[in-house]
Amino acid sequence: MNRYLSCGLFALLAVSQVSASSSTLPNGAEFPSWEKPLHFTHTYYVNGQASNADDNGPGTEQHPFRTISRAAQILKPGERVVIAEGVYREFIRPARGGTGPDAMISYEAAPGAKIVVKGSRVVTGWRPSKGWNFGIDPVTHKPVQAWELPLDPALFDGYNPFEVDNVLGNRYWIRYAEDNMATYFRRRGLVFVDGHPLEPVELSTELAGPSQRSMNFFSTVHWSPLFEEFSPYAGKVWIESNGMTLHIRLANDDDPSRHTIEITTQEQVFSPLERCQSYIRVKGITFEHAGNGFPVPQRGMVSTNRGNHFIFEDDTFEWANSVGLDIGNEDWAASRPPEPVGFDVIRGNTFRYCGIEGLGGTGGPQDTLVERNLFEWIGWQDAAMMSESGGTKMHVARHLLFRHNVVRHIRHANGIWLDIGNANDRITGNLFADIPGHVNPHAVHIEGSEELNEIDNNIFWKLTGGILIRDTNNVIIAYNLFLDCKEVGVDTVSGINGPRPIFGHTNDVHNLMVYGNICAGMGRSAIEFNNGRNEADGNLYGVAQGPFGFGSPYLRVKFPEPPEWDNLKSWRAQRGWDKNGAEGQITASLDPDKLTLSLKVKSEIKPVAAWKSIDTDYYGKPVAGDRLPGPFPDLLTGPAVRSIDPR
Questions:
Q1: Quick one: 63 exposed, middle or buried, by C-beta within 10 A (0-12, 13-18, 19+)?
Q2: Residues linked to residue 247 through DSSP beta bridges, in sequence order
Q3: Model pTM above 0.90
Q4: Comparing C-alpha atoms, which of 451, 90, 45, 134 is closest to residue 269?
Q5: Cα dist from 569 to 53, 565, 573, 577, whole Å
Q6: How many angstroms separate the CA atoms of 478 and 16, rounded?
Q7: Geometric angle at alpha carbon 274, from 270 and 277, rounded to 5°
Q8: Is the pLDDT of residue 463 over 80?
Q9: CA-based angle 376:383:474, to the nearest 5?
Q10: Between these two residues, 169 and 443, which has the higher pLDDT value?
C-alpha cells in the first residue's frame, strides 16, 4: 500500500475484510437490498388478442382488458397485471406506484408469453413518389423509383419524431468543427421494414446510391451506413423538410405493399404519468421502437420518470433512437425530487440496438443494482463526441453494484461510463468484449470522482482501451484480465476541462491500486499512471513485441515530462512496483457470442495474499487464501476452454 493512501481509506479497506462477497461495496458494506417476497392482493389480466377483451370490462382472466394502459389506470399498491402474448402498440403511463417492497405494483408477462410493446404503427398506402429528383441508379443507369407516404398527424402521440432533430436540449457538448453533424440534426423517426431499419439519408438524391458528399463544409466527414454491421440492408428513407412525408427505396427495389412497414410514432412507450413514483415492477416485456432524442435530457424509451425503487427484470429494450431505459433524474437542471432517485434493480435484461445509451441515469442514482444483463450493439448513432454514449451511462452514481453483465459489440460508445462524483461503486464479474473506436471507446470509464470505487474480476477483450481513469482518485483495479487492447489496459488522464463542478478542483489521478491483473496483447502499454502516487503489485504481463522493438510489458508514468517508459525490471527498480509481479507467455482466444475463452499461461508467478476487500472470482464464487492474478483462481491448472457467461 503506498504512503499516500489516507487513513480513511485504510479504515474502509480494513472493514471490508470482515464481510466480503460479490455484493460487498468498496467501503466494506454489503449492497443494501430492499427486495422482499412479492405478494399481491389482486391480479388483473390483459389479452389484446382475445375476442372478448374489453377495457370497460372487469379485467379478469375470463374477461380481460384489451390494453395494458387500461390496467395502468386502475392498479393500486399491492396489485399486478398479467399480460397475455401479443403486440401492444401503446404508451403505458402508470397512474400510481406502490407504497413499499411488500406493496408493489407489477406489470408482468404471463408465463411463457412473448409480450412486445411498440412505439410504432404499421403504415400502408405507399404510392410512387412525385415532384422530387431522386437521382440515377449507378448500376441500372435509370431514374430511381421511390415510394412516398404523407403522414397523418393522428398517428403520433406527443410529437412527430420525423419533424424533430435528434438534439434539441443541451447542445454545449457538440463539437461542430470536427464531427459528423448529420447525426445530431438527423430526424428522430425510424422506419422498419419487416423488422429491419431503413438507412436515413440527408438528400433526396442519396436514395440512388452511397453518398460521397461531405457532411461538413469545412471537413471531409462522409455519410456512412448506420446499421450494416448488425442488420441486413433493408433500404433507405428520405424525409421531407417539414417531416410530414416519407420517401423510401427498398432493397431490390421492392414494392412496399409486399412488406410490413412500421414507423416510430412515440417518444416513449412506458413512463409513469406523474414524476417521482415508486415501487413499480416490470417483468418479461419487450419494448421496441421509440423516436426519442439525444441526452440531455435523458428520456428513455422506458423511463422511471424520476422515480425510485423500480424493478426491471427479464425485459428487452430494442431499437430506441437514443436511450433504452432511464432511471435517473432526467436532466442536470432538474429540481431535486422529494425522494432520492435510484434504489432500482436492473436484472436479467437485454439492451440492444439503442442509438446512444442502453441504460442511462443522471442526477445521482444511488444504491442501484445492475446485474446479469446483456448490452450489445449500443451507440450506432455515432455521437460519441457529445460524451453521453455508453452501454451504460451514469452521472453521480453512488453505491452502484454493476456485476455479472455481458457488454459486447459496443460502437461509438463506452461500455460503462460513470461521469462525475461517483462514490463507492463496484464493477465486478463482467465481460467487456469488442468495443473499438477512437472517441470515448473504453470498456470502463470513471470520470471526475474522489471517493473510493472498485473494478475487479472483469474480462476485457478486443478493445481500444480497457479502463480509463479520468480526473479521478482512489480506485481499486484488481484481478482483471485484459486481452488484445489496441492501445492500453489501464489508462489515466487528468486536467480535462478545468476544475470539476463537484469538488472545485481537478484530480491528478492518484491512489490507484492496480493489483493482480493480467495484461496480454497490449498495443501500446499495459498500465499508464499519471504520476508516482499510485500502487501496482502482483500483476502478470504477457511478453510480446512492442511498438518500439523492445520486449513488453510497456509500463508508463506520464508526468513529470517527458513520460517515462518502463519494462517490468525498471518499473520495480525505479518505483518499487510489482515486486510480486511477473512476466509470462499468455495465449488466449475469446468468442464474444458463444461466450467461451481459451486461455493458456506459462509463468513462474506464485500466489500471493489476496487483495483485502476481494475474496470472490469472476463468477462470484468465494476464493480463500492466497491467489494468482486474474479473475480465475485456477489460472495455471484450469480447463483450456471455459464458459465465461457470468449470468
A1: middle
A2: 148, 238
A3: yes
A4: 90
A5: 75, 11, 6, 10
A6: 15
A7: 80
A8: yes
A9: 75
A10: 443
